[in-house]
Amino acid sequence: MKDDQQKDEVLGLTSAFAMVSHDIKNSLGILLKYIGMISENCDLEACGVSQECADMEYEVRRINNNLVKMLTLFKVEEGNYMLNVDAHSIRDFLEEEMLEHGDLTKQKGIGYEVECSEELYWYFDRNLMTGVMSNAISNALRYTKDWLRVSAETTDEGLVVTVEDNGSGFPESMLEKQGEFFHPESGFLNNNTGLGLYFTQVVLDLHKHDGKRGRVTLSNGGVLQGGCCRILLP
User: What's 85-233's CATH class?
Assistant: First the structure.
């Protein structure tokens, strides 16, 4: 009887958290809209708060993305997420994801390039992969000097999407311990990058194909000699 009561209390708290998170998410969406309006009407060269607007948008978007990740993880954990897999143009998908961050790249003076064949299509859940790409791009925008490169290609293992920046790269301590994001109890989720990596791996696990499992790998170097986030989708 006591166990049933504790279970009901946990479910009640989970439902309450989900409802509050949805409300916060809606409010953050309104804030992002207003920040975008301010940025559109601001002469970047003459405006004295353009950098502050860029920083504000980054932080609001980061909080919003984390809420989306948590809500999705709750649904997956409870078995309530319905996977919606369909064929998508990879180039269109990547360009749309970069355009979603267009105001921020403009405010921060960051350029980018998308390298991908127009004939490349792949099957995946667009909603989930949007969260994965948003996380990877946001991290790259945070650490880059002034340039991002997003690319995609097919290999024998599956589709490989790489997000690179020309910053100083990931800390060696993070590269050495990146495998810990498979285990939430390790404490690696105490930082934003850890949550994003864990979310990405959960999404890739849901996209298993012919017994093959996707993975996310961090490294330094690549074309831009900065941080590299490599996402394999089987």
Answer: alpha beta
